Amino acid sequence: MKKLFFSFLLILVSICTFAQVNPVKVADFKAQYRSVIEGEVIGIPSSKLYLVDAYQWRNKLDSAEYKEGKFKFVIKDNKEPFLASIVYFTKENKMHRLAFINNELSKNNSVAFMTDDGLIKIRGDWTGVTSIFNLKPLKIEAGKQNRFYQQNYPENIGIINDESPQKHTESFNDTRRLVKENPYAFYLFGELYNNKSSFTNKELEELLIMFDDRVKKSTKAAELNKYLMTRKEVNQLTSLLILKNSNNIVKEGINKNKKLNMLIFWASWCVPCRSEIPLLKNIKNSITSQDFYMASISIDKTRSNWLKALKEENMEWDQFIIETNDFNRIKMEYDCSAIPLIIFTDQTGKILKRTEGFSENLLEEYRNFIKSALE
User: Fold this and answer.
1) What is the pLDDT of residues 80-108, one digit of tens each?
2) How many structural domains compose the chain?
């Protein structure tokens, strides 16, 4: 009987011990993604500071009281570190960003930092700062996420301006090396995402798999995977394109209309797009084949701006605008990350050629391609 009681007691103790230990592990797991930003800075002319996304600084993520030269922000869930800024507003309601010394490259000070796990310390004197012309950058101590950012700011990671195969391969190899050496870097992944149109789907898949699990499980990674499943490359078939013109008349199969279809993605606010229009008029007037079709497709989000531009430019070929409910799908499928963008498709909707940007020299290139495709 004593043995039975002892065994029961041992089991009970084991259960209680497990119940006590397990929550600690969960708490530790959550705590490792906690970020605390502590500041000891004199001279900030405001009683309140705001933590914002550096790319979308109008969106206030958190606020902190500034008192006796001190402030503190706590990010309880920093599982996906991001590029942040700290801002304040003057009595005239003018916004200012705190600036930080670049510990890695002294000449490249910045108004942003990465939200590292653990403690981020900000120290310095902001007295007398009134504009970007008399900044007094502050000292910042953070971790490896911010260290990578400072080492690589303001480099445009992943942008490949030279389209030659050799240069593209060299740039991709440089990027791959950077990912291999820094698979934890959220700033690196963010820059690759922003410049994703510089790479092929295969290259992006290769880069993505090299990042660590924390990055691969992020929201941005999920968006990139969706992009890869949707984007169509040269020699791939596009889905049926259905759009409305300026008279709200729906037209189907714009990308499969003729033997050769020239789709021009643009916007009323895009200066290079507007500069390209005389070139497009030249093509319209010089290519008379019945097997050739031109259509401009606006990515304007405000219809009235688009209609105003149509009146001003007087383009005598089909004009369409992407509807709000179809905007994201079409933008991803045709990869309208940069405009002007011209895509040529055949009668099956297969992409034959794509060109981003505008140059007067492209006129002859387009003419030669159209002539060759129509033969």
Assistant:
1) 999 999 999 998 899 999 999 998 887 78
2) 3
